[in-house]
Amino acid sequence: QVQLVESGGGLVQAGESRRLSCAASGRTFGSLAMGWFRQAPGKEREFVAAINWSGDSTYYADSVKGRFTISRGNAENTVILQMNSLKSEDTAVYYCTADHDPELPLRLWVLTPTEWGSWGQGTQVTVSS
Hints:
Blueprint: E1 2-7, E2 10-13, E3 18-26, E4 32-39, E5 46-51, E6 58-60, E7 68-72, E8 78-83, E9 92-100, E10 118-119, E11 123-128
Parallel strand pairs: 2-11
Antiparallel strand pairs: 1-3, 3-8, 4-5, 4-9, 5-6, 7-8, 9-10, 9-11
């Protein structure tokens, strides 16, 4: 019922910044929590960041705290991932995800991919040293 499209991936040098965006369409009901996962070659898909439907609560993986910021976009049902101080280990395919917001603390449910119902196709981010 929900379709997601990511954009903004590309090649960036270590220490620089990149901005990813994701737009949701379909039957969203105006109450979607949204987030980002990433997957590097040979590794499992891992949680990056999440934000609740109203945009007043966020949660981050330890590996990106202080460097990445997730926020709601200006358009309804959009989400932004601002990535600063990028490292080579950030290289991965980044996936946008969304699901109905249960209005519970994010850390209680957002960490595992199976808790999310909708996924984008992914956008490649490559950080060169």
